[in-house]
Amino acid sequence: MNRYGILVRLTAAILIAAIIVGVVSANIFYRITYNSELAAANEDISQLFTTVSSTASIAAYVEDSEIAREVVNGLVTNSTVHGVKFKAGNVSVSTPIKSNYKPLTFDIFHPFMNSEVIGHLDIYPEESFIRNRAEVIGRDNVKALFALATVVTLLTLIISHYLIIRPMVNTGNALHNIDPGASNRLVKPDFHKTSEIGALVEDINELLEKSESLITKERSLRKEIEVLEKNFRMLFENSLSPIVLADRQGELILSNDSFYTLMARVNQPMLTNYGPLLSDLFVQSEKLIKDVKQAFQKNDIAIGEYELKTSKDEPMWSQVVIIPISTEDNSDLYQITLHDISKRKLEMDKLSVQAEVDSLTNLTNRHGAETKLEDLMQRKVPFALALIDLNGFKQINDIYGHDAGDVILKHVSDNMLNVVRQDDTVSRWGGDEFVLIFKRTEKQALIKVLDKMYQAIIKPVKLESINQEISVGASIGAAFYPESGETLEQIIRRADKAMYRAKAVKQAQPEKYLFFDEE
Amino acid sequence: MFRQIILIIYLLLCCTAGASIASESKSNNDLVVVVHKNNPVDKLSKDQLIDLFMGKYVAFPDGKKAIPLDINDSSQLKKQFYQALVGLPLARVNAYWSRIKFTGRARPPQEMANEQALLSFMNSQDRAIGYLPRSKVTKNLKVVYQFSE
């Protein structure tokens, strides 16, 4: 039924139009018929009058009501005549007449003087008779009209069905059965090669052509994307490094299995948010946020190494690589990759300890001291530096051998370490030379510490191999940062100079073992 | 000479025409309508004559009863009279009367056998009215209308 919607609507429209036109034209026809019937009746009545006019003239002339009545009665027997009124002189003859009827009035002439009017005859047409006849004719007209309308409607429907609707429905069905992107095309219906339907079919075929090429292109693109996506997913899912995608607030948008393996390893619950930039996972969470912020001001990528919070004894370290990603809808996301560097960090620490510690004395070696000093200077932290050179060590080495020298060195080192605070650093600078890095700048405090150190150095030690106590002396030169110089080299040189002044008087005035740079 | 001939012809033509007109207007055969000389009516119009002879009124203008008379003989007098009065042939006149007669309200004029009968009837009846050729009018009668054509 739905497919014949146009036909149904067309039928309804034509029927309604036919009914309206039929009603209106039937009315008009009725009026015209009535009027023409009325005219015909009037004509009939005129003729009737002609037939009685001579009698009427005589009746009027002699004013004879008998003859007049004869005329009137004769006229009334006619079916088109409703009533008659005769009036001439004193004679007036009439039949009963309905008040609303209108008469046709005829002049009655003198029978012998034809120009003289001597009376009037009013003849009232029988209107209901005329109306009935008009109605009968009108009804016949209406019947004919409706028959015509029915025939025209049926013909219109049949013609539109075969000419328009069937080709349209066939075309529609064909279109319905074509899958988007298929190579099928519509065929123009017969007799519609150049019609609007033909043009429609052409346009649809053009559209089908376009959509086919579009869909083909899209399919191949989709295939490519699928392959890419698969590969990316593989990369992402199989990555040994935990990778997450998080928004500004730290809500995780994407995370791979490795990330949850890591969370299990560090005993973290499964959450969807570990703070901005995963900072809650790290011991130095605030530092991480600060570092990343600084890095982003300079670069696009932030890389740093941070210790993970864990309940285990072994520290766990991660290299954190954070790449900011601006998405199409302008929301900032972060790709955060964690590399497990715990093992490396452990080895590095060990290495670094090895590198910065003197293996004999366990004191910080020269490299360690330099690193520390550079660090202090970089941070502009004021400090004092004391260069300590042993006196008499070479002789012990020469007389008792290197083992004895080592014993002395260890003895001196241990003693020195015992008198300084944790904060201060005692370093073996090389051979029998030591350096104290003193983080307080009060001279008195420094003198006090150096005195304790001096007493510790000169304390004799029993040499087991020869069963004899031996001892060494020391000369000390001190310099200050930043007063003595801006560079390490300058400060060392000034301390060295001061130390040599002490050396110069070591025999004569051994109590003056300490000289300051400014002296 | 030529002029005289034309004049003579003209005069001759005029005389002939004048003679014929005079002979008709003064013809003794002209129809006249007459009443008794004692009748007070002196003159009647054609309308009054039609009304009297066609039965509309049967009285003179003074209200006295009138007796119209026809002459029904072989002469063409009656035919001549009705032709002159209402311009109808006798057959139509008779048909007219046959319409009216049955109502009884009016009657056609009384029929006289000939002119002689009419004259003797009119001598004895001073209410009568009849028609005659002018030549037949006697001294007892009075002309109240004359048809001039």
UniProtKB/TrEMBL annotation, chain A:
<feature type="coiled-coil region">
    <location>
        <begin position="204"/>
        <end position="231"/>
    </location>
</feature>
<dbReference type="InterPro" id="IPR003660">
    <property type="entry name" value="HAMP_dom"/>
</dbReference>
<feature type="transmembrane region" description="Helical">
    <location>
        <begin position="6"/>
        <end position="30"/>
    </location>
</feature>
<feature type="transmembrane region" description="Helical">
    <location>
        <begin position="144"/>
        <end position="164"/>
    </location>
</feature>
<keyword id="KW-1133">Transmembrane helix</keyword>
<protein>
    <submittedName>
        <fullName>Diguanylate cyclase (GGDEF)-like protein</fullName>
    </submittedName>
</protein>
<keyword id="KW-0812">Transmembrane</keyword>
<keyword id="KW-0472">Membrane</keyword>
<feature type="domain" description="GGDEF">
    <location>
        <begin position="381"/>
        <end position="518"/>
    </location>
</feature>
<dbReference type="Pfam" id="PF00990">
    <property type="entry name" value="GGDEF"/>
</dbReference>
<dbReference type="InterPro" id="IPR029787">
    <property type="entry name" value="Nucleotide_cyclase"/>
</dbReference>
<keyword id="KW-0175">Coiled coil</keyword>
<dbReference type="InterPro" id="IPR052155">
    <property type="entry name" value="Biofilm_reg_signaling"/>
</dbReference>
<dbReference type="InterPro" id="IPR035965">
    <property type="entry name" value="PAS-like_dom_sf"/>
</dbReference>
<feature type="domain" description="HAMP">
    <location>
        <begin position="162"/>
        <end position="216"/>
    </location>
</feature>
<dbReference type="GO" id="GO:0016020">
    <property type="term" value="C:membrane"/>
</dbReference>
<dbReference type="InterPro" id="IPR043128">
    <property type="entry name" value="Rev_trsase/Diguanyl_cyclase"/>
</dbReference>
<dbReference type="InterPro" id="IPR000160">
    <property type="entry name" value="GGDEF_dom"/>
</dbReference>
<dbReference type="GO" id="GO:0007165">
    <property type="term" value="P:signal transduction"/>
</dbReference>
Automatic annotation (TrEMBL), chain B:
<protein>
    <recommendedName>
        <fullName>Phosphate ABC transporter substrate-binding protein</fullName>
    </recommendedName>
</protein>
<keyword id="KW-0732">Signal</keyword>
<feature type="signal peptide">
    <location>
        <begin position="1"/>
        <end position="22"/>
    </location>
</feature>
